[in-house]
Design a protein that fits this description.
- It is an enzyme of class 3 (hydrolase).
- This protein has helices at about 10-20, 25-35, 50-65, 85-100, 115-120, 130-140, 155-160, 165-175, 190-200, 230-240, 250-265, 280-290, 305-310, 325-335, 355-365, 380-385, 445-455, and strands at about 40-45, 75-80, 105, 125-130, 150-155, 180-185, 205, 220-225, 245-250, 270, 300, 315-320, 345-350, 370-375.
- It is an alpha/beta fold and about 475 residues long.
- It has two domains: about 10-205, Rossmann fold; about 220-385, Rossmann fold (3-Layer(aba) Sandwich).
- The strands form two sheets. A seven-stranded parallel β-sheet has the order 3-4-2-5-6-1-7, with helices on both faces.
- Helix 3 (about 50-65) crosses helix 4 (about 85-100).
């Protein structure tokens, strides 16, 4: 493989990559860097985990080096479909930008807008954004795109799936016509081809691997269980292995519930779905990314919101707890493992009544895998799980706090209650009964209790014994 220096990457950026253990370029980087570093528009098609983030981060930083952006006028823009993906792109760009003296910020919803406004008003060189919040800030006059030199669209097909293309089109139209544009997408359907024809000029196309074929080191298994209870047991077993694993469910409620069930069973897990606030999402993703020996967790339970946004290395296993409805979702979920040339396994768990749908799903995804009837104790499952992680005792639930009892108000001090005349007895207190202002409140005598119950019972109400 050629080195980054061989491909024309500036020495300071190559040094940053070498410091991170990256000395040889992946195929998509080999194919695209000579053109993108020369300023050409580019259409890249590569699977997740193929190294495409660096394929656009390097030319983005290299071409902006040597100048400073004016406040509210960034010169580099990256659009991403999800907050998680935007955050991880920014994390990849940041070390390179720092070496080049450039400033980077993220712009997306779900968090306070004020810090984003302040960063833009101070001046940043590169903005990594989701379309919705960026358009809001454009309308408010907080940011202008008329000086953008390099624009990147990452996972454009997923933006189309989420309905973002009208906003993306408006954003691209606000950038200078002569600027460089780099578009990365797994497919060219759903209007992506129209977008490319409109905004890319004499674009060079690079396709590293087939759009419908996952990364090559991936093994696919399809495990059929007899019933829902057997499925629960199997999923718990699949989650118990020592390596990192992502379990995909169809709904937010299922993801939250399964993460709790696993944690209670001694398998620490975090969830990731659309109902979580941004701080919780970042906290859970950081826990999953961290080393388990340093407090990290090995299991992430997620909905499809994470299929595109989670780029974590060394995920050994992806489990489709609920098979997805579409083959593209299957490929995107599965792409969380076998990244950057590493090996990984994808397991689909199904019930007998789902057999036909799963067969159709795999056919459309061009995946060949035999359906294996199993139980949690089957030798095939035991071999698949491998070494198990140590049991982790769940943290005890915090004790529920009892509400503090109110002290009876003293008749000798304080202002009278609203609606009660000073000196008059309280409601429900008979004339002549002593008020207890300190110490324990004495219980009324049995006879008094009976009289009180009789007097408080509505007339005509039968007595139930």
């Amino acid at each position: 493989m050629p080195s980054f220096l061989d491909l024309g990457v500036p020495a300071p950026l190559a040094a940053v990559l070498a410091g991170d253990g990256k000395t040889e370029a992946f195929p998509i980087q080999q194919g695209t860097l000579p053109d993108s570093l020369a300023g050409r528009d580019l259409l890249g098609r590569g699977r997740t985990g193929s190294g495409k983030t660096l394929a656009f981060a390097i030319p983005l930083v290299a071409r902006l080096t040597g100048a400073t952006s004016r406040p509210q006028h960034p010169r580099g823009l990256v659009l991403a479909p999800t907050r998680e993906l935007a955050t991880q792109i920014a994390a990849t760009v940041a070390p390179l930008a720092k070496a080049a003296g450039l400033r980077v910020t993220t712009v997306f919803g779900g968090v306070s807008q004020r810090p984003q406004e302040e960063a833009l008003r101070r001046g940043v060189d590169i903005v990594v954004a989701c379309p919705g919040r960026l358009e809001d800030l454009m309308k408010q006059g907080v940011v202008r795109l008329d000086e953008v030199r390099v624009t990147v669209l990452d996972e454009a097909d997923h933006m189309a799936d989420l309905g973002f293309l009208p906003g993306v089109t408006r954003i691209l139209a606000a950038t200078p016509q002569g600027g460089q544009r780099l578009l990365f997408s797994a497919t060219l359907d759903n209007g992506i081809d129209v977008l490319a024809r409109r905004f890319l000029s004499n674009a060079v196309s690079h396709e590293v691997d087939e759009a419908s074929v996952p990364v090559g080191e991936m093994t696919h298994r399809v495990l059929e269980v007899a019933d829902a209870e057997s499925k629960k047991t199997l999923v718990n077993e699949l989650a118990s292995g020592a390596g990192r694993r992502i379990l995909f469910t169809r709904t937010k409620h299922q993801a939250k519930k399964l993460a709790k069930v696993l944690t209670t069973a001694g398998i620490p897990a975090v969830d990731l779905h659309g109902n979580l606030g941004q701080n919780a999402r970042e906290r859970n993703l950081a826990a999953f990314s961290a080393d388990p020996a340093e407090g990290g967790v090995r299991v992430l339970v997620a909905t499809d919101v994470a299929a595109r946004g989670v780029h974590v290395d060394d995920v050994d296993l992806v489990v489709h707890v609920d098979p997805p409805a579409e083959h593209k979702a299957y490929l995107h979920r599965s792409g969380r493992t076998a990244r950057a040339g590493a090996a990984g396994t994808v397991v689909t768990v199904l019930l007998p009544e789902q057999r036909r749908d799963v067969k159709d799903l795999l056919r459309k995804a061009q995946i060949t895998a035999a359906i294996e009837p199993v139980s949690a104790a089957s030798p095939a499952v035991v071999e698949l799980i491998g070494a198990k992680a140590a049991y982790v005792k769940p943290a005890p639930k915090p004790a529920a706090q009892q509400p503090a009892r109110k002290k009876p108000a003293s008749g000798a001090s304080g202002s009278p209650r609203q609606g009660q005349r000073q000196g008059q007895p309280r409601q429900g207190q008979g004339q002549g009964q002593p008020r207890h202002t300190t110490g324990d409140v004495a219980a009324p005598a049995p006879a008094a209790r009976r009289r009180r119950r009789r007097s408080s019972r509505p007339q005509g109400t039968p007595t139930t014994r």
